[in-house]
Amino acid sequence: MDQNQITVTEAVLAAYFSGKATPEESAAVEKWRLLSPGNESAFRDYALIWERSGNFVPVMNINKDAAFARILEKTGKQPMTASPARSPMYYFSRIAAVIVLLVISVLVFRERGTGEVFDQTTLATAENQELQLSDGSVVWLRNGSSLFYNTEDDGSAIRKVRLKGEGFFEIAHNPERPFRVELEDGAYVEVLGTEFHVSQTGANIGVLVKSGRVRFSPSRGDFPVLKASQKAVYSKKDARLTISESSSMNELSWHTGGLEFVSTPLSKVIEDLQQFYNADITLENSKLKSCLHTAPLTDASLDEVLSSLELAYGLRVVRTSRNVYKLTGGNCGK
Amino acid sequence: MAEQEEKYWLERLKEGDEAALGKIFDVYYSDLVSRIFRVIPDSDTCQDIAQEVFVELWNKRASIEIHSSLGAYLNRAAVNRALNYLKSRNRGVIDGSAELVESADDGEVFSTEARQAEEMELRLHRAIEKLPERCRAVFALSRFEDLSHKEIADRLGISVKTIENQITKAMKLLRESLRDST
């Protein structure tokens, strides 16, 4: 036995796991493990604790707008004019037009939340982007969003990526290894093999499931399992979660390249059309608002879509200027 | 943030462009707050500390030299501030009696091994949240901030022995949380 023997305490084990132990301490730990089955089992418990605590991300709510306003205040900068607190996104959108960066760069992204290391970042700035991951899953990244992931499958128990912004995921089925999409503030979405859509805005996180089952874990509160065509919206401000049946998948139109309607009220159809074609459409006959419209997925032009509405509901389409349309007359019955 | 993008925003920051501060803030603020929160679980304090980091970034923008990455730089600045904060309110280590609350066992029951590992991780994270204040701070500095026991002791102005005691205590409490599984 050594003269000055090192007592293996939990603190020495911690130093050992963090790679900060001295050679003498490491030797003592290795010797200690072999002394009894109890020691070995304690060693394994602590190794597990050390490893798994690495994913610890605290749960908290942050009001970024208010925080940024305070920073401006402290730097002596007056927030401009009427709006007391401009969101950082305001500044970004002003500049977004100036820089159209399409950066696909390789860097080691040390995720600050978890110590998780991803070796690849894809930032889809100018246009939507399609990515194939090493496990066969496919991600469509909406413009302006970023995905952090590993180029090689490391075989870990949970397949993980991290999303900033918005994306559509088609996950390669593998019930043994759940696929986790980490979001802001410790929220995440986890699946076994399915298709789903995630959107994040300053105030909300939305998850829409196209097929399969998904577990959504917001940073606070319940973590429900969502089924196909269910949509969960989590409000960060009041930590409220709303789950609804989604009547259409048209939130995915940026991904599918077209709209589709299944018994969708005409008012909602008009809304989707306006958003997708970036047009101003008014439905003058309010009786038509609740007509249920069904149409297969199409990437037809707006004029074509409107003339199909004309036929279906006997209404009249008047184009008053570029991208401004009025729909008059008509009735629900065909 | 990608390297090229980061360079671009730093240039803009140096020129005194407030939009650059906005962009950098937008990318890093939440992560910085969560990072500090692991060590100091008080939302207001963490936000104050994180905000100071950005105020300093702005005030020092003209002379700032970043050799690693902006993210690493901000992290270091935040951790330094957190350490100073802990030191400033270090009035000897008072150990509150550690309460380990039952793990949150709501939610779906899944049967796969991956799921069990998941539940175990969740329980562990809850237990970290329940650690007594000082104990948690010292454990988090050791676990997440890549600091040795000696470095933590020096920065907080307390003895290595105390740091080791705190870490031992934290580890023991966390191990108990694994046992609480059924």
Spatial order of the strands forming the largest sheet of chain A? 1-2-5-6-8-9-12-13
CA radius of gyration of chain B = 19 Å
Averaged pLDDT of chain B: 82
Structural class of chain B: mainly alpha
Question: If you consult CATH, what is the topology of the largest domain in chain B?
Answer: Rna Polymerase Sigma Factor, Chain: A
User: Which CATH top level class of the largest domain in chain A fits?
Assistant: Mainly Beta
Secondary-structure element order of chain A, as H and E?
HHHHHEEEEEEEEEEEEEEEHEHEEHEE
For the largest beta-sheet of chain B, the strand count, sense and barrel status come to: none
Instruction: Summarize the biggest pleated sheet of chain A.
Output: 8 strands, mixed
How much of the sequence of chain B is in beta strands? under 5%
Mean pLDDT of chain A: 74
Number of β-strand runs of chain A: 20
**Biggest interface found:** A-B, 66 and 69 residues
Which strand-content bin applies to the residues of chain A? 25-35%
Q: How far apart are the first and last residues' alpha carbons of chain A, in Å?
A: 95 Å
Q: What are the segments of chain B in which pLDDT stays under 50 over at least 5 consecutive residues?
A: 92-111
At the first level of CATH, what is the class of the largest domain in chain B? Mainly Alpha
Q: CATH superfamily of the largest domain in chain B, please?
A: RNA polymerase sigma factor, region 2, helix turn helix motif
Gyration radius of chain A, rounded: 27 Å
